[in-house]
Amino acid sequence: MLTIPHGEAETPDQWEAIPTFDLATQPVEKRGELSGEWGFAWHQQLNPATLAEPAESKRTVQLPDYLNNLIHPEERNGRFAQGHATYFVRIKNLSDFYSRPAITMRYVSEAWAAYWLFPDGHTERLGGSGELATDPENQVIRDHIYVLDLPRESNDGILVVHLSAYHGARAGLYGLVKVEEQETLIRSILGDLTIRAVFFGIGLFVVFQNLLLYLRHRSDQSFLLLSVFAFAGIARSAFASNYVTYFVNQPWFSIPAVKIEYILILWPGIAALHYVCHLFPWRWNRLLLSTSYLILAVASIYTLLAPMVEVSYYLLVYNALLVLIVLAAVCVVIHGMLRRHEMAFFFSRSVIPLIIAMLNDIVAASTPDYNFYFAEYALILFLFIHTQRQAVQFVTALRVAEHLSNNLQREVELKTSELSLRNRELEAKHQRVKLLSQTDHLTGLYNRQSLDNRTKALFEQAEQSDSHLSLIMMDIDHFKPINDRFGHQVGDECLVHVASFLRGLNLRHKDLIARFGGEEFTIVLPDTSIEHAQHLIEDVCTRLSKETVSGSHYEIQLTASFGIAERVISQAPSYEELIQKADQALYQAKQNGRNRVEVYQSDTPE
Q1: Of these four, 193, 306, 331, 357, which has the most CB atoms within 10 Å of its CB?
Q2: What value does the mean pLDDT of the chain take?
Q3: Number of helices (H), then strands (E), in the chain
């Protein structure tokens, strides 16, 4: 362990050779900034009594800067500056401008200790991080102490920082050291912590929101990929801002934490590439993803196995790989824009601030006098915006699905009712068409085709049950003279009148009336004996003879002749034979004077 030596104190007059910041001469806007010349000694822990004495080991350097840039090549251990050093600078007129002066040591690494040398020669330890050592095995690194209180009563003194660095190529006082009022400094740090806490909260919200959306809709992997993207981003931010090492403040965890931070440089970029490859399909996506994950695997193995000083030396390589991965993601988005993908245009607009922030952080990581990082904030805002857009689309789709689900039964019933109505209309049309195909267009009675089909079926049923079946052939008397005298229109009126008369006979439902052709009609009476049929038809003949057809012409007296044949009596083997025998009886009625009924007997003339 290194300890600060004591000797005979130097007087303030002897301090004139020490690099000095006089707060009284600094511009107001830059007052308190300790940026410029510092005293420096490599591989030495200087005695306060000898700070102003000339020595080859002491020199003046410009800070802030990385330790590796301050050491001459011949003083290095190979490519890296590994060892311990002393930084010192005089600060004048401190209490004239600050009642409770303090400095932030955020940008100091690795192990360090800060002291204040008073003009009277005594020394006060201000604080430190870890334990100083002359070899890497004994060096202990702990979480930084960000705020160091300077002595309130001292108006003049020397700030001395002892540092040992063995694990990082970018160690040293690499950030701006500035004297401020303690209250202002603490307020600034608390403000920064509050902002970070808010953004961490937003990041965690994005992670869990996307996980919940993915669990609700597992078929869409964009929610899962966006959640992984957000987790990678906040993990990178947590390690880069030393939040993790603050909670796990153990020496053994310091180096692994930094190595994980370096690995996390690449992971958010690869998670972003995976997300855009899912959004915008392209034939090169599989190759891009495979290559990027291979890079991550190789970089992770190298980072975990290589010495930390070597890993930190190649920070620019890590950043260059990140830029390549981001460029691959940009190419995927551009391809989506060329394919007119709506999401690609929104993505391209929202990613521009993120790319600018990422480039800014790369510059900040490579420049010792510029330490303003904001990529983590831009990333979380980018993820939050995309998550809300995805969530709005998901909720909209969910509401549509819920609306369809809630109204599905009613819509199905409505469609079913409409379909049933259409079916009934189609059935009615079908029945009308069927009726038209089965009926005579003039009289509305069954036509000859329907008569043949139905009579054949009735005849077969009668044969099977050995029952009666009577068939009557009817012919209007003197119909041709009516046509010749009054015209066919009047003849049609007579046919319609007779059809209406026959429909009004109040026959049974199973009885059949049809127009046989011309002025001939047929009546079929199932389960009716010859005697009953004869009695019925004689009544019909009598009633018809009393019918007259009136109109714009003279009244026409109508009569008809009837021939009856019964299946059993006539011994007809088929319905065609039965019709023929009834027609023979009709012919006999015509021969016997018309307006009469004749029954077919076996001795009826052929």
Answers
A1: 357
A2: 84
A3: 17, 19
Residue closest to 309 by CA, chosen among 68, 142, 132, 515: 68
Q: Give the C-alpha separation, 463 to 574, whole Å.
A: 9
d(CA 508, CA 498): 18
Q: How far apart are the first and last CA of the chain?
A: 146
CATH of the domain at 498: 3.30.70.270
Query: Which domain covers residue 309, as residue numbers?
Result: 190-398
Report pLDDT for 123.
Answer: 86
Over residues 539-566, the mean pLDDT reads: 87
Average pLDDT over residues 60-66: 89
Phi-psi region at 340: left, alpha or beta (left = phi > 0; alpha = psi -120 to 50): left
Q: Last residue of some domain: 370, 398, 426?
A: 398
In sequence order, the 6+-apart residues with CB closer than 8 A to the CB of 456 are: 575
Q: How confident is the model at residue 242 (pLDDT cuts 50, 70, 90)?
A: confident
- Considering the entire predicted model, what is its pTM? 0.61
Number of domains in the chain: 3
pLDDT for the residue numbered 38: 92
Q: What angle do CA 50, 54, 58 make, to 5 degrees?
A: 80
With respect to residue 506, please indicate whether it lies within any of the assigned structural domains.
yes
Among the residue ranges 349-353, 367-371, 414-418, 474-478, the one predicted with the least confidence is 367-371
For residue 241, tell me if it sits in a domain. yes
Same-domain pairing of 313 and 391: yes
Q: Quick check: is 4 in a domain?
A: no
CATH assignment of the domain containing 336:
1.20.1070
Position 424 in a domain: no
